[in-house]
Amino acid sequence: QIEEQLRRAEGKVGRKALSESDYMEVLERSCSQGWESYGVQELDGQKRLVGPGLPTQEPMSVMVTGGPWPGRLSKMCHSSVGERGEAQIYGAHRRGAAAVRELLCHGDKGACGGGKAEGVGSRKALQNEL
């Protein structure tokens, strides 16, 4: 969501770099947005977070939206922005989507990783964080 919001804002100014006040506003808006379209879907016995910007899962399986997830995602977004800082996140965005993913997700095996390389401990840590 952060990447998409920054891309849209830059599109409005002709793909130029945003001013500090503009990217700070975009990041705040990204984290404060409604997260109601996100939820949990079970696939192959594992529960996965699904929603806009996330890899799509089995379209015919049951997806539960709402509940605690909108609040948790907003809190996690604000926490990530606070921990990393707006300038660092925007700098990563200017370098490309891979840089944003590395910064916020700690690589493919981090919090955003979708592969099966994650161990039980890392899934438990993510669950506790959410």
Tell me what you see in this structure.
The protein has 130 residues and is mainly alpha-helical. It has one domain. 53% of the residues lie in helices and 10% in strands. The protein has 6 helices and 3 strands. The chain has helices at 2-12, 20-32, 69-84, 86-95, 97-105, 120-129, and strands spanning 39-43, 46-50, 63-65. The chain has a 3-stranded antiparallel beta sheet with strand order 2-1-3, with no helix packed on it. Strand 1 (39-43) and strand 2 form a beta hairpin. Helix 1 packs across helix 2, helix 2 runs antiparallel to helix 3 (69-84) and helix 4 (86-95) runs antiparallel to helix 5. The longest helix has 16 residues, at 69-84. It is elongated. The relative contact order is 0.13. This is MZB1 protein. It comes from Urocolius indicus (Red-faced mousebird). One of its GO terms (biological process) is regulation of B cell proliferation. InterPro entries: MZB1.
